């Protein structure tokens, strides 16, 4: 490769671009003639030329051929060239797919890694669909080295971000199992993949929640990690951050055991961060974990003791000298404001938060704005809005539009004084100017129109703005609308005569855009109807603009001119009738604001805007009925919850024409939520494993025994029931000669409304040969249920193994035998006869050659928790029983049984009755 070294030296020594170009052209000509002889060296030269920015239009096929070389050095250069020269739509890409597949199937890990790099860097849809199965195979293969699994996980992540359909839903359980991998690098990479997948398919990847909680506890509490992953005394900070973030993608678990695992880990993290280390790297790593732990604590919203601790800490963070810490502190406090029941702890720091608006870093200023918006309520709205208006004059252009939206929403939401609302809204529009979106001024018009108390004050104020020498065009639009609709209400006031209103609007006419001129023309036709004394001046305007070059304005002016000069005023009065109140719709202000936060790669489980904005996380059009609605609703008019109407002035004629004359801010800008693809629920009864019923049937009448057994695993069960409560202990024994990894159980409650399940302990993820782990589950019968729960058991034993079993938790387990006299039995039997409380069935024994006798039948009935009543039935062969079914919500149900066995034919007739009473 000396020629390559010399070529690079020549280019570095070239003093002018012309000399460099001359040397490159000479080398390209040489390469074209001698390519076949030394392919590797010449491809390297082409790569160097390409990296320098020169166009290389040949040699791509030679690079593709190098991929198939046997030598690693040649294959490496080939892959490097392919990833640089080719893109996902390149015509040569289909030639390399088979070569890449061959390297993926190779037993050489280095070749596997080269192929994975190429797929991740180039991989288009065609390549991804062709090779994703092989990448997944490398990821899950027990023969793959840790560094290959790590690269395979990241390759799948890269493909998924481009084309989500490439990752199959059926892979979920196997991918989740790798979160238990002993190699921290694999765990980190797989967790990154699961984080992306879980955001789009939360139901399919819900098993990752328990995995994340368990792995977090092992790292933080049990110090179970490789020594190499202790970064400046902080164990595995990258994995901790990802696990904490993953737990925020799901609602808090109802399982007390899982909550306990998370609570223990969070407390340990908070305790470890009680002192600030002087080492910068340790401080950064510790803060990264700490802030994510704080966000998770806020997300859980149930750990009161932890919430008290973090409230005081956040107050210190927002005053830190470090910009990053201040930013993260403000962000976490914004999250707290979005979840907390009370804002009092945050209000203590209001002056510091307001001061953050003048921070030297724009990110901190933007985050301070978010926090002020979220922490605002009726008690502090006026000072916060005033501060935001002051800051708006000097705010960065990048955040002015968002500030205007937030000020407008807060002004409307917490206004209890009509004059304050009008003053702030008009002052906001006058200050912000071009940064006021259409939704803001349309919302002001909408609220004034729907509230009688506002109309006179708003019309007087907007007229004063119109009379000023400088008035922004947005105010002119509001002025045209409000004066056209409500100008007659102030016509008798000093300085507000019809001619003064007309002259004020006319003075702004020439400097406005066509859409604003259209609004003013419509206002003038209103004036013709309301103020006949200035009709002559108004007709002059219509006559002038009936000759304008703008076709829409010309048509509007001509129509208004004809309308104003008709012999009678009947049509004019009809067309210019008062605008009705606007209908209530989703707020376009909030829609526009939340649209700015939509589409991020990390889908938040909360939105900026306070507790009320997060009452339903699925809703983004979250304007609650505000102080405006309470104080402004008069005369039975519906208050303006949201948007409706038209951009034009308050005239029915205004719905004709210009492009701004659609429904007034009536567009709901929120996008449809992404539809989640749901894969099969492997824990459901639809996926029960073969031979599951053998042990299940035995355990229906026994308290302990073997529920399932095969060559690898044995599942034992022990149960105890007291009243409506039941405790089930499951024992999992590894019968094989090798260890089992990533052992996971998932319960599926098909009777969730009637049966409560609470996990008390989880099995260990790793089971050594001939060893055992156990799981305790508590059950509570709330009322009568019919579908027993099922359990999904998955584990790694070479490959992923899975079992779905039905647990023998059935309604009769919550029964206790009762004693009744013969008289009481028949009395109750007669009282509650007939359906639906009485059922009768004839059945035989299942199984070829099965027979029964009196002893067997009695044992079976007793196993079903019936108290057998002897000497009640005249026929001694018949069995009579009584029991009480215990439920927590339905109370106690008395149950009666009469079994008539026919031992000759092995057929029995079963009659039972149920009555609700005390035993």
Automatic annotation (TrEMBL):
Residues 630-657 are annotated as: Disordered. GO terms for molecular function: clathrin adaptor activity. Gene3D superfamilies: 2.60.40.1230, Leucine-rich Repeat Variant, TATA-Binding Protein. Keywords: Coated pit, Endocytosis, Membrane, Protein transport, Transport. InterPro entries: Adaptor_Complx_Large_Subunit, AP2_complex_asu, ARM-like, ARM-type_fold, Clathrin/coatomer_adapt-like_N, Clathrin_a-adaptin_app_sub_C, Clathrin_a/b/g-adaptin_app_Ig, Clathrin_app_Ig-like_sf. Its main location: membrane. It is found in: Membrane, Coated pit. This is AP-2 complex subunit alpha.
């Amino acid at each position: 490769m000396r020629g390559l070294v010399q070529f690079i030296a020549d280019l570095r020594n070239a003093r002018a671009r012309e000399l460099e170009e001359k040397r490159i052209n000479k080398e390209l000509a040489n390469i074209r003639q001698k390519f076949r002889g030394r392919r590797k060296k010449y491809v390297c030269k082409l790569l160097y030329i390409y990296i320098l920015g020169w166009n290389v239009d040949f040699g791509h096929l030679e690079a593709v051929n190098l991929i198939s070389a046997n030598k690693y050095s040649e294959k490496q250069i080939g892959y490097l060239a392919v990833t640089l020269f080719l893109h996902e739509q390149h015509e040569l890409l289909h030639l390399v797919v088979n070569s890449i597949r061959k390297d993926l199937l190779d037993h050489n890990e280095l070749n596997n890694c080269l192929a994975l790099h190429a797929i991740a860097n180039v991989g288009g849809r065609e390549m991804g669909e062709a090779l994703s199965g092989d990448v997944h195979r490398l990821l899950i293969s027990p023969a793959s080295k840790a560094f290959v699994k790590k690269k395979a996980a990241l390759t799948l992540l890269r493909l998924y971000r481009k084309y989500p359909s490439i990752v199959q839903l059926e892979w979920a359980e196997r991918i989740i199992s790798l979160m238990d991998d002993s190699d921290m690098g694999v765990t980190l990479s797989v967790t990154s993949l699961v984080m992306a997948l879980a955001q789009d398919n939360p139901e399919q990847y819900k098993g990752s929640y328990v995995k994340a909680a368990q792995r977090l506890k092992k790292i933080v509490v049990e110090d179970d990690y490789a020594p190499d992953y202790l970064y400046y005394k902080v164990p595995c900070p990258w994995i901790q951050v990802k696990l904490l973030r993953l737990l925020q993608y799901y609602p808090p678990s109802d399982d007390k055991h899982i909550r306990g695992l998370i609570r223990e880990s969070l407390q340990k993290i908070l305790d470890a961060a009680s002192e600030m280390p002087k080492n910068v790297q340790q401080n950064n790593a510790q803060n990264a974990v700490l802030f994510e732990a704080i966000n998770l604590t806020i997300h859980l919203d149930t750990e009161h003791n932890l919430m008290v601790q973090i409230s005081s800490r956040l107050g210190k963070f927002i005053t830190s000298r470090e910009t990053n810490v201040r930013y993260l502190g403000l962000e976490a406090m914004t999250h707290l404001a979005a979840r907390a029941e009370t804002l009092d702890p945050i209000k203590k720091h209001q002056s510091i938060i307001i001061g953050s608006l003048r921070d030297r870093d724009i990110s901190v200023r933007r985050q301070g704005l978010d926090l002020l918006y979220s922490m605002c309520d009726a008690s502090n709205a006026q000072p916060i809005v005033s501060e935001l208006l002051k800051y708006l004059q000097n705010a960065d252009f990048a955040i002015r539009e968002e500030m205007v939206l937030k000020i407008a929403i807060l002004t409307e939401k917490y206004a209890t004084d009509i004059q304050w609302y009008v003053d702030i809204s008009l002052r906001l529009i006058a200050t912000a100017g071009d940064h006021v979106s259409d939704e803001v001024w349309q919302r002001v018009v909408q609220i004034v129109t729907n509230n009688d108390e506002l109309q006179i004050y708003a019309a007087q104020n907007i007229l004063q703005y119109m009379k000023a020498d400088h008035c922004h065009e947005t105010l002119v639009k509001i002025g045209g609308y409000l004066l056209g609709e409500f100008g007659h209400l102030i016509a008798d006031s000093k300085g507000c005569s019809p001619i003064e209103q007309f002259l004020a609007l006319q003075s702004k006419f020439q400097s406005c855009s066509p859409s604003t001129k259209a609004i003013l023309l419509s206002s003038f036709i209103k004036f013709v109807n309301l103020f006949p004394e200035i009709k002559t001046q108004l007709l002059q305007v219509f006559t002038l603009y009936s000759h304008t070059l703008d076709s829409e304005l010309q048509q509007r002016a001509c129509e208004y001119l004809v309308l104003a000069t008709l012999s009678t005023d009947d049509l004019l009065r009809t067309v210019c009738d008062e605008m009705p109140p606007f209908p209530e719709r989703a707020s376009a202000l909030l829609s526009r604001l939340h649209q700015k936060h939509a589409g991020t790669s990390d889908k938040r489980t909360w939105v900026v805007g306070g507790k009320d904005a997060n009452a339903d996380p699925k809703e983004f059009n979250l304007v609650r009925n505000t102080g405006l609605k309470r104080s402004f609703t008069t005369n039975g008019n519906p208050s303006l919850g949201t948007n409706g109407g038209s951009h034009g002035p308050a005239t029915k004629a205004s719905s004709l024409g210009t492009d701004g004359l659609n429904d007034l801010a009536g567009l709901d800008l929120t996008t449809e939520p992404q539809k989640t693809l749901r894969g099969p629920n492997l824990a459901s009864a639809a996926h029960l494993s073969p031979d599951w019923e053998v042990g299940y049937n035995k355990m229906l009448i026994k308290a302990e025994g073997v529920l399932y057994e095969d060559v690898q695993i044995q599942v034992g069960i022990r149960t105890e029931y007291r009243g409506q409560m039941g405790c089930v202990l499951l024992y999992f024994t590894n019968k094989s000669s090798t260890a089992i990894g990533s052992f996971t159980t998932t319960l599926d409650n098909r009777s969730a409304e009637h049966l409560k399940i609470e996990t008390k302990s989880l099995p260990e993820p790793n089971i050594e040969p001939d060893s055992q782990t156990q799981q305790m589950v508590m059950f509570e019968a709330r009322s009568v249920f019919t579908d027993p729960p099922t359990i999904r058991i998955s584990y790694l034993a070479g490959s992923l193994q899975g079992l779905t079993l039905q647990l023998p938790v059935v309604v009769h387990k919550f029964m206790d035998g009762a004693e009744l006299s013969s008289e009481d039995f028949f009395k109750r039997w007669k009282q509650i006869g007939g359906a639906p409380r009485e059922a009768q069935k004839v059945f035989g024994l299942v199984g070829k050659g099965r027979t029964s006798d009196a002893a067997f039948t009695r044992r079976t009935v007793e196993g079903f928790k019936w108290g057998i009543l002897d000497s009640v039935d005249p026929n001694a062969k018949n069995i009579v029983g009584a029991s009480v079914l215990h439920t927590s919500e339905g109370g106690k149900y008395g149950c009666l049984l009469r079994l008539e066995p026919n031992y000759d034919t092995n057929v029995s007739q079963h009659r039972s009755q149920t009555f609700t009473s005390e035993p």
